[in-house]
Write a structure and sequence with these properties.
This protein is of the alpha+beta class. It has 4 domains: about 60 residues, no CATH class; about 90 residues, PAS domain (Beta-Lactamase, 2-Layer Sandwich); about 70 residues, Helix Hairpins; about 150 residues, Heat Shock Protein 90, CATH 3.30.565. The chain contains 12 helices and 13 strands. The strands form 3 sheets. Strands 2-1-5-4-3 form a 5-stranded antiparallel sheet, with helices on both faces. A 5-stranded mixed sheet has the order 7-9-10-12-11, covered by helices on one side. A 3-stranded antiparallel sheet has the order 6-8-13. Strand 9 and strand 10 form a beta hairpin. It is found in: Cell membrane. Its main location: membrane. One of its GO terms (biological process) is phosphate ion transport.
């Protein structure tokens, strides 16, 4: 009886000690003897191994999440019926998912656009599909889905908006370039056809010669600008080591610009700080400021004011052309530096504009780590300006 009571007491004591040890999760193994001691040691070792595995898995999960966040694409993991398992932050942004709040939700209930639902229901993931973003309507998404386990799928979401815009710009570029070259070629072809008749050559030769000369100059200028633009876009090693005296350069341009402004009865005023020199490409820089100055004169009505300002300050220099002309509508401003883009195509052609000038300005300024800024109000005028960082300004 006493032996049985002692045994039960011993078992009960070890049981409570075991229970307490499990609940406290202490690293210290309870002291015991016999089978209990062996079990304590075995459990302790197994627990240590499990803790190590848990830490390793946690570390791998963190590395995976960190890696997935650095991907340029959205990633979504879902089950057979569209149940969300996991997604990265870019997938949240592009598809409008809130994770982990939407964990276990059916993605078809979150993204209700017909294109997306039809894509998932089709179960045909051999080819990628394109659709507008359900959140960012102006963005185009490319979805690629692949099955990696039974009933589990991985979706890659790529924002192809910029690629589509570049493709559209390329198509527009070739269409406009063809149109620009076709017009003068048609004129030349017409006069060549007329020249087949010797009786008509004498009467119209003088006018024909003038028109053909103008069209050839226009074609020459257009080809030259296209070559310049191509070089600016593809050549990152343009020589920027010229010592450019901007005051001298603007004094030279002013003489030419004043002559044009007078024909339009415009008031042209140059305000240039003294002794401003920059390191760059002189031909390229001259093209930039000439384009901006002559655009303000050519593309505005008679009698307006045009101010050209060149100011030096601690952060660098600022060049600006300000006019009191007709102004530009806001929806045109972002596209002004696109190739062949014109606010008014008929008026631009009448003034001899090719639509490439501001594109050349844009790509030229990229070499100086800056960009063209445009501000405008209808019937009040416009301001075109840029800032050249102090690292390009040469000390006196």
């Amino acid at each position: 009886m006493c032996a049985s009571l002692a045994l039960n007491s011993w078992l009960l004591y070890n049981f409570f000690m075991f229970s307490g040890w499990l609940h406290k999760k202490t690293e210290n193994v309870p002291s015991s003897i016999g089978v209990w001691e062996k079990n304590f040691i075995l459990l302790h070792r197994k627990n240590v191994r499990n803790q190590k595995r848990k830490k390793e898995l946690t570390r791998l999960i963190r590395r995976f999440k960190s890696g997935s966040e650095s991907l340029p694409d959205g990633v979504l993991v879902f089950k057979q019926r569209g149940v969300i398992v996991w997604c990265n932050s870019l997938a949240e942004e592009l598809l409008g998912i809130r994770f982990p709040a939407d964990l276990g939700q059916n993605i078809k209930q979150i993204i209700r656009t017909p294109d997306f639902i039809n894509y998932l229901n089709s179960n045909n993931f051999d080819k990628p599909v394109e659709m507008p973003s359900p959140v960012l309507r102006t963005h185009i998404l490319e979805l690629r889905t692949m099955q990696y386990n039974e009933g589990e799928f991985l979706m890659i979401i790529r924002d192809t908006t910029q690629i589509k815009q570049l493709e559209d710009m390329k198509r527009t570029f070739f269409a406009d370039a063809s149109h620009e070259l076709r017009t003068p070629m048609t004129v030349l072809k017409g006069y060549l056809e007329v020249s087949k008749n010797p009786n008509e050559i004498g009467d119209m030769w003088q006018r024909a010669h003038k028109v053909m000369s103008e069209q050839l100059i226009r074609m020459e200028s257009l080809v030259e600008q296209l070559l310049t633009l191509s070089k600016l876009e593809s050549d990152n090693d343009i020589d920027l080591n010229d010592d450019i005296n901007l005051v001298t350069m603007l004094n030279q341009i002013e003489i030419e610009a004043m002559s044009l402004a007078k024909t339009k009865k415009q008031n042209l005023d140059f305000n240039v700080d003294k002794d401003i020199r920059v390191k760059g490409n002189e031909e390229q820089f001259r093209s930039v400021v000439t384009n901006l100055i002559f655009n303000a004169i050519k593309h505005n009505p008679n009698g307006i004011d045009v101010r050209v300002n060149l100011k030096k300050f601690n952060e660098g220099i600022m060049f600006e052309v300000v006019d009191t002309g007709r102004g530009i509508e806001q929806n045109h401003i972002e596209r002004l530096t696109e190739r062949f883009y014109r606010v008014d195509k008929a008026r631009s052609r009448a003034t001899g504009g090719s639509g490439l000038g501001l594109a050349i300005v844009k790509y030229s300024l990229n070499h100086y780590d800056t960009s063209l800024k445009i501000e405008s109000k209808i019937n009040e005028g416009s301001k075109f300006y840029f800032i050249i960082d102090a690292k390009f300004v040469l000390s006196q």
